[in-house]
Amino acid sequence: MAKAKKKTKTTYRSLEEKKQIEIRLKTIEGQVRGLVAMVEQERYCGEILIQMAAIREALKSAGNKILKNHLATSIVDDMKADRLECIDEIIEIAKSNQK
Length: 99
Known about the structure:
By secondary structure, the chain is mainly alpha-helical. It has 3 helices and no strands. Helix 1 packs antiparallel against helix 2.
């Protein structure tokens, strides 16, 4: 018997919002490539750690933007439709961001 394929949820984002998130993520991608180059060049550990902290903050910022959109759209829609399992989803998201 074949496994049923799990339906993937999607989220609508305006073109402007999608563009902003993509730009942030591509910037982070470039920062990570720079970090790899720093390791390859045997740069000073302190410099590498500072760059890693900058990348973490950039990821946190991008994540917060996505979370804000998620709460304002998907979660609000679920609450209005009495799909209260979204509360468990938010708790799981909060837990994963505390690690």
